[in-house]
Amino acid sequence: MKPLTLSAFTLTTSLGLGETAHVDALRSGRSGLAPCAFESAHLDTWVGQVPDAYLQPVGGEPAADCRNNRLAQLALGQDDFSEAVAHARRRYGAQRIGLFLGTSTSGLLTTELAYRQRDPASGALPAFDYAATQNHFSLGRFVRARLGLAGPAMVVSTACSSSAKTFGNAARMISVGLCDAAIVGGVDSLCLTTLYGFGSLELLSSAPCRPFDVERQGISIGEGAGFALLERSEERGRKPDVQLLGVGESSDAHHMSTPHPEGAGARAAMERALASAGLAPHDIDYINLHGTATRTNDAAEDKAVHELFGARPACSSTKGATGHLLGAAGIAEALICVLSLRERLIPGSVNTQRVDPALHVRYVLNTRHDAPRRAMSNSFGFGGSNCSLVFGIA
Amino acid sequence: MEVFVESVGLLGPGLANWPASRPILQDLTPYEPGEVLLRAPESLPPAERRRTGAPVKLAIGAGLDALARSERSAESLATVFASSGADGEMIHQICEVLATPQREVSPTRFHNSVHNAPAGYWSIALRSRAPSTSLCCFDWSFAAGLLEACAWSLTEDEPVLSISYDLPYSEPLHALRPIVGTFGAALLLAPHRTSASFARLDVRVEGEAGRATRMKDAALEALRSRNPTGRALPLLRALAGPSAEHLVLDYLDSALPVSVSPC
Questions:
Q1: Residues in A 259-318 with any Cβ partner in B closer than 8 A
Q2: Which one in A177, A326, B9, B21 has a CA-CA gap of 20 to 30 Å to B218?
Q3: Does A60 have pLDDT greater than 90?
Q4: CA-closest candidate to residue A155, choices A173, A141, A170, A140
């Protein structure tokens, strides 16, 4: 693919609001995880929650007021991102900017809460705006209105690979000329379906998650929102900063909620991403692993990464810091790769104490200064949906 | 964007498959909506087959109908799944359980509740490691899926199977999102003309919403206007007939004009 420049971006997670908070957290090895006190959940687990106090009601459109859109609104207010989009809108026209966002549960919490207030006689739900909250496109609808965009738009929902895959949508839509620039990213917010659902699968860790640790015992769920503005690199006046170089997507064809034991689908996604970028395995300096901290995911990913890359690239999972942001994991970790390239650092793996000796990649425990030139981000989801992204710095 | 149609799949009320539906869509045979026969694919392992819900059967059924008249290998065929609501029944059951004190969510229901469940089961049933995406664009999901499939086919220079499906929510969600009819449609698209191509599509995004082509038959028009995948019907009608046609699909606040020409 032709490289695309990330000319603006922003990230909000339990680590903080915006880019600076995340750079600081990566440098200091801070974690945003805390014992779960979300809503009425009674679960022995830790979560990466954005404080409720930050999630202000959405202005202008009360029907769209749900936790997911509040989180989107909060993120859109950081790092002058909305101003950068306004500038792009003046440059290209609102109809020439695409919007491709990912989420796994959108505003489902609103529906969950409504089910507690059903009419005892009829079973009817209290009134809420389905299209503006529960429907997956509610996120696209809300952000499109907020940013004043009128170009192609869609929401990808492929579980934990959702927002990673939006980079592919943008690359394709720009390539065929349906738009000149695109906003990619995603938002996922805590809800009871995912907390109790992962609980039912016995995948929740009772302590802060420890990716690649010999004693890892499951995931910590988090929430977050991230956005990036992508433009054709040749159209940027100045020297390109960080670029999207390649996207690779694949399917596992194995099981709905367990990864392929040999990581075959994961490997196919990484190989496609390298081919799309025109790079070889030895060109990659850092890999931000999917690294959920379940026994099976980390083992399968380790096998796939080690077979393809050997022990050369530095690898880490940042889920010990952010938790697993599910549909927003792809954008969050893509942006962590971007920050690694720009800030010249290799992020460590917060909470991981002793790397599982059965795993073979070159796993980095503590953040360190380095000068990675090209980074890969892996995102793998339920249904065997895999996506790998390659970023580079000029 | 110019792409070539190699095969069409259909599954809906009174629309059992593409060959049987063609005369109905051309108004040569009266349309009589009936039950939709949903079956889990034989190629799924028994454990997976038991776990599939109606949306999975619908989406895969429509896709398999398109593959039935194609020489393409499903193992290497990229797929785009589009749906407004995916598995509403699963969401309903989970929300009901979460409203009880015990909150005992079923693990199978939880992993089936993801929007990409049909894509996951498709890849298992067809042994396909090919790339696949699952998207949502509310009432415009079919149009969004068509755009993504065209863009995939043209940039990757390979065929793609675009599958769209929507089915009703049960109450109480139905009152808030009244989707009517159980309808799935699939288009096998290729970037170049081949011996299998039977129509050329020219797809653009331009103009304003509100001028979508309608169906003449009242029952088909009801399916078009009340089921997000039903929005595909004017395009399917054009593909069913022998002549060139120009039609318009609504897409967000703009329009998707599509020219269909036999080839």
A1: 264-265, 268, 272
A2: B9
A3: no
A4: A140
* Residue B62 and residue B11 in contact, taking contact as beta carbons nearer than 8 Å: yes
Q: Residue B255: closest CA among chain A residues belongs to which residue?
A: A152
Q: Which chain B residues are closer than 8 Å to A167 by Cβ?
A: none
pLDDT (tens digit, 9 = 90+) per residue, B81-113? 999 998 999 999 999 999 999 999 999 999 999
Task: Report the C-alpha gap between B258 and B260 in whole angstroms.
Answer: 6
Q: Which of B107, B126, B147 sits opposite A178 (nearest CB)?
A: B147
Tokens 């109480």 appear where?
B172
* Residues of chain B positioned with their CB less than 8 A from the CB of A383: 111, 114, 116-117, 119-121, 123, 134
pLDDT at A4: 96
Contact A379, A104 (CB under 8 A): no
Q: What is the mean pLDDT of residues A280-285?
A: 98
How many CB atoms sit inside 10 A of residue B218's CB? 8
Percent over 70 (pLDDT), chain A: 98
Q: What are phi and psi of B95, to 5 degrees?
A: -65, -35
**B 20-49 residues with CB < 8 A to A:** 48
**CATH numbers and ranges of domains, chain B:** 2-196 (3.40.47.10)
A290 a catalytic residue: yes
Token couple for B143: 């149009």
| CA B190, chain centre distance (Å) | 17
The answer to whether A13 contacts chain B (CB < 8 Å) is no
Torsion over CA: B61, B136, B86, A263 (sign): positive
pLDDT at A257 over 90: no
Dist CA A388 CA A170 (whole Å): 15
Question: Chain B, 211-250: which have a CB under 8 Å from a chain A CB?
Answer: none
- Do A200 and B150 make contact, defined as CB atoms within 8 angstroms? no
SS3 (DSSP) at B155:
helix
- Domain positions in chain A: 4-381
Please check whether residue A269 is in contact with residue A250, taking contact to mean a CB–CB distance below 8 angstroms: yes
* pLDDT at position A123 over 90: yes
**Token pair in block for residue B186:** 């699939």
What's the rounded Cα separation, in Å, for the pair A143 and A158? 19
- Sign for the pseudo-dihedral over CA of B125, B131, B135, B140: negative
Q: Which residue has the tokens 């318009």?
A: B248
Element (H, E) at B248: strand B245-251
The SS3 assignment for B104 reads coil
Confidence grade of residue B209 (pLDDT, cut at 50, 70, 90): confident
Tell me how far apart the alpha carbons of residues A230 and A90 are, in angstroms, rounded to a whole number: 15
**Whether the predicted pLDDT of A349 surpasses 60:** yes
CB of A250 within 8 Å of any CB in chain B?
yes
